Amino acid sequence: MRLSEFKEMMAEEFGRGYGDVIVRDLVLSSLEDQTGQQALAAGVDPRVIWLAICQANGVPKERWAGRLAPKKPSA
Prior knowledge:
This protein has 75 residues and is mostly helical. The chain has one domain (3-58). Helices cover 52% and strands 5% of the residues. The chain has 4 helices and 2 strands. Strands 1-2 form a two-stranded antiparallel ribbon. α1 packs across α2 (16-25). The chain is globular. It starts with a helix and ends in a 19-residue tail after the last helix.
C-alpha cells in the first residue's frame, strides 16, 4: 500500500481530522507500542499500520479493504 492510499483510507474511515489524530496519538501494541506516525517513520508498510488501526478501533473486517473497495464477483 502506498502512503497516499493509507492517508485516503484513514480519511475515508475516520475523517481527515480525526484520522490524523489517530495516526499521531494512538499507541498500537501490535506495532511494538508505536503510534502509526512512528511506525511510518520506521519504515513499516502502511498496510500493516492500517490493519493495526482498524483492529484497534473496531472497524468491521468488511471495511479493512476500504469503504469503496470493489466487490468480488459472485460465483
